[in-house]
Amino acid sequence: MCSDDKHVETQERASNENGWKQKIKKFFTSDFNIKNESNQKVAAAIAVGVLVGILPIWGFQMAVGVAIAQMFGLNRIVVLATSNVSMPPMIVGVLYGSYQCGRLIFRSAPSISMDNISLDAMLESGMCYIVGAVIFAIISAAIVYIISFLLLHLLRRKTQQP
After folding, report:
1. Cα–Cα 20 to 30 A to 62, which of 4, 31, 81, 119?
2. What average pLDDT does this structure show over 117-129?
3. DSSP track, 130-145
């Protein structure tokens, strides 16, 4: 192999390495920068994150959230961040709210209070919880969308005025 061939091969390898590095850099920089996104898109990304974070699809929440964000052109990082709504300090409230929403549909489900909540009680009335979680997720996402849209509208208006 002559030195020219080695030089060309080295340049191609560097070009390929820069290609994937550029793609990763673009992925993160484009999603972290929400300044150029509309209030509706940012609020929708927050709402989608909350929606999938509450849905009873444990282990798949982030993957589903990113897929939805990709499908609708929403900010993936915002969706990932807000899909963590069902993390430890919040999970008790999410479970309780989901179950109480399910009780609106299934009137015969036993009453559970924050004092006597247990895994056994939740498993005993699983359908009530699952239906309630879907209802609770939709209601929560709608409320979060409205609140985040209004906050973005107020906060961005103040920073954009001279």
Report:
1. 119
2. 75
3. HHHHHHHHHHHHHHHH
Q: Where are the domains of the chain?
A: 1-32, 34-160
DSSP 35: T
Residues in Cβ contact with 139 at an 8 Å cutoff, skipping those fewer than 6 apart: 101
User: Tokens standing for 47?
Assistant: 């709402």
In the Cβ-directed half-sphere of 89, how many Cα atoms lie within 13 Å?
Answer: 0
Q: 75, 46 in Cβ contact below 8 A?
A: no
Phi/psi at 87 (5° precision): -85, 165
Q: Please name the amino acid found at residue 156.
A: R
Give the tens place of pLDDT for each residue, 28-67.
566 566 777 889 999 999 999 999 999 999 889 999 999 9
